[in-house]
Amino acid sequence: MLGELKAQKGEIHLLGKKIQDYRSFKEIGYVPQINIVNKIAFPITCLELVALNLYEDFGPIKIPRKSHYAKAEQLLEEMGMADYKKYPVNELSGGLQQRAMICRAMINQPKLLILDEPTAGVDKVNKEKFFRTIAHLNQDLGITVIMVTHELKEVESCLEISHRYSIEEGRLVQC
Predict the structure, then answer these.
(1) Burial class (CB in 10 A: 0-12, 13-18, 19+), 82
(2) Residues 89-108: tens digit of each pLDDT
């Protein structure tokens, strides 16, 4: 779905387009597994991390402007992360790192949000906050959410799921 691998058979369509026809992935937000954040070797702040996802709008020099930071600051405020905007992302708790990554994914106002094991390594309290955030994005903002997780029981207890699939013997199966 992210276009990193070619389909071996058939076609992949997202938002009415073939995946290979996408030129801009602004309509798709992606939140990787939390352990990717811990590999950031430099002290990027939450504000910088979120603003940098507007890179397609930076212009020819590819440097964020005040308007990009203002948009990122507004989103951090809306997502309850304003107090952490100047904190280095790799110094935050797992739950706060995930919320920062969601803000990063949401800055372009995507129609589709893809989450890869978003609660791995996150404590119970922050998982519940995370699931409330996802429910808000889906129910109140109309964003389609695709989540890969091994924590199905926790997800089902917190979220209304319209379609559930699993992979069995290498095949995608609707449950």
Answers:
(1) middle
(2) 888 887 788 888 889 999 99
Structure tokens at 52: 């940098």
Whole-number pLDDT of residue 107: 93
Query: Using CA atoms, how far apart are residues 76 and 4, in angstroms rounded to an integer?
Result: 28
pLDDT, tens digit, 9 for 90 and up, residues 25-64: 788 888 887 655 556 667 899 999 999 999 888 888 888 9
Any bridge partners for residue 166, and if so which?
A: 173
Identify which of 108, 112, 141, 105 has the alpha carbon closest to the alpha carbon of residue 14. Answer: 112
Helix axes 94-106, 124-135, angle to 10 degrees: 20
Alpha carbon distance 89, 44 (integer Å) = 6
For each of the domains in the chain, give its residue range(s) and CATH number, in order of start.
Answer: 13-174 (3.40.50.300)
pLDDT of residue 78: 87
Q: What is the 3-state secondary structure (H, E, C) of the chain?
A: CCCCCCCCCCCCEECCEEHHHCCCCCCEEEECCHHHHHHCCCCCEHHHHHHHCCHHHCCCCCCCCHHHHHHHHHHHHHCCCHHHCCCEHHHCCHHHHHHHHHHHHHCCCCCEEEEECCCCCCCHHHHHHHHHHHHHHHHHCCCEEEEECCCHHHHHHHCCCCCCEEEECCEEEEC
